[in-house]
Amino acid sequence: MDTIEVERVVAVEERNWWYRERRHLIGRELRRLGRPGLGADVGAAGGGNTRVLLDHGWDAVAVDASEAGVDAARRRGIDARLGDARDLPFPDAAFDFAMALDVLEHIEDDAGAAAELARIVRPGGAALVTVPCDMRLWSAHDEALGHVRRYDRAELAEVLTGAGFEIGRLWSWNVLLRPVVRMRRRASTGCDLEALPAWLDRSLHAVVAAERVLPVGTLPGVSLVARLTKR
Description:
By secondary structure, the protein is of the alpha/beta class. It is built from nine helices and seven strands, in the order H-H-E-H-E-H-E-E-H-E-H-H-E-H-H-E.
């Protein structure tokens, strides 16, 4: 992620509906794990999600390949390291939990990056991975963000199990808004990340938040989420 994109994320993630609901998702998964430990946020950009780990009592570190991302995270008081997802600056089995949120789609060698994520997690430790799904949603938005691909379930499962993870759950996210996203992406000319009017932001957040209780995780969505255990 380049400097401009990091600055864009940092500017909107506090108030943007998509980022807020994803932070809720992370918090829910952390509560499932119980007692906090050592956590890593790989591809952390400005560390917005790393703060969820810290808020839940984890001893957490952010790592990003961009100096702009590392600097932004450090300005927020986060322990941040410069490092490539394919060559992380940590020893084997160093963490109880690691997450790579919307990272693998940026990397040609996604299998290598997934294996590196698995390497830094202790056996029996946990991980959380999210990716954009379905090449039918491919648009100028993906190109602007530097995506290499969007995934289907089988592709993501193959990459993650091949890396040494067991999949506890693999589900779709942002299902209810998929028709809206698909229409918007057809007309997209670049990155869709932007500040929205408050009323619209609240409305979109309410829709995606409904997925917390609705059984829609097996339906087509905009993203895939994988809950993992290191073998």
